[in-house]
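User: Reviewer 2 asked us to show a designed sequence for the structure in our supplementary figure. I'm pasting the C-alpha cells here. Could you produce the per-position amino acids so we can include them in the response letter?
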C-alpha cells in the first residue's frame, strides 16, 4: 500500500496564547504580577461600579496571568537569523573563514481587532496597559511567554507549534481611522523576546 503524501501546513487557522512568564532572567528575580482589571474594579468604592472594559482574558476563562487570549488574527516574526563573523586568513586571498556568532531575534508582531465588553464600556486596554506599565513603573516588568499553534484544516490537531520566552512590549500601534470605510479597528503589538523554538507536536 503506498504511503500517504506529506501534509502541507496551512496558515489560516491558528491560535496564540500569552502567559505570564515564571522563568527568572539573569537577575534571578521572578517577574512581578500584572494587575487584573477585575480586581481593581472590585476594590473601587461605591455601591455599584459603572461597566468598564472586560480584560483580554475574560472570553477564554483565563486570569491575570493571561493576556490577549484568542483575539489575534495575524502573526509574523517567527524567524531566526545567525550572525556569522568573517575572518581574513593570511595568504588565502580567495577564501574567507566564517565563524558562528550570536542569534538575531526579530520581534513577534501580533494584530487583532479591538474589543469592547459585551455589556458596554470602552475598548479593552490590556495590551496598552502592559507597555504603559513598563514605561511608568520601571523594572522589573511583567514578561510573557507565548505559544503560537497552527491547526489542521479541521481545527482538531496542532500541526506546528512555536514558543517564545520572556517577551516584553516593544511597540503598540492603534488603528488607522477612516470615516469613509467600515473597516474593523485593528491594533498591532510588537513583542521583543529572549528565545524562539519550533517544537515537535505529538
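Assistant: Here is a per-position design you can include in the supplement:
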Amino acid at each position: 500500500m503506498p504511503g500517504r503524501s506529506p501534509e502541507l501546513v496551512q496558515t489560516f487557522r491558528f491560535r496564540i496564547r500569552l502567559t505570564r512568564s515564571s522563568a527568572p532572567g539573569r537577575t534571578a528575580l521572578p517577574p512581578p504580577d500584572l494587575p487584573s482589571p477585575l480586581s481593581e474594579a472590585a476594590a473601587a468604592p461605591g455601591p455599584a461600579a459603572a461597566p468598564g472594559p472586560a480584560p483580554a482574558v475574560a472570553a477564554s476563562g483565563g486570569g491575570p496571568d493571561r493576556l490577549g487570549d484568542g483575539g489575534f488574527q495575524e502573526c509574523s516574526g517567527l524567524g531566526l537569523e545567525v550572525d556569522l563573523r568573517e575572518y581574513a586568513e593570511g595568504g588565502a586571498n580567495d577564501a574567507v573563514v566564517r565563524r558562528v556568532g550570536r542569534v538575531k531575534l526579530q520581534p513577534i508582531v501580533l494584530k487583532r481587532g479591538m474589543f469592547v465588553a459585551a455589556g458596554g464600556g470602552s475598548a479593552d486596554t490590556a495590551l496598552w496597559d502592559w507597555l504603559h506599565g513598563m514605561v511608568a513603573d520601571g523594572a522589573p516588568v511583567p514578561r510573557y511567554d507565548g505559544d503560537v499553534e497552527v491547526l489542521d484544516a479541521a481545527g482538531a490537531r496542532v500541526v506546528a507549534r512555536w514558543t517564545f520566552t520572556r517577551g516584553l512590549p516593544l511597540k503598540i500601534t492603534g488603528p488607522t481611522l477612516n470615516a469613509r470605510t467600515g473597516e474593523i479597528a485593528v491594533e498591532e503589538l510588537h513583542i521583543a523576546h529572549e528565545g524562539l523554538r519550533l517544537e515537535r507536536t505529538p
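For the response letter, you might also mention the following. The first strand starts at residue 14 and ends at 20. The beta strands are 14-20, 66-67, 72-76, 80-87, 97-105, 108-113, 144-151, 158-173, 186-192, 196-199.
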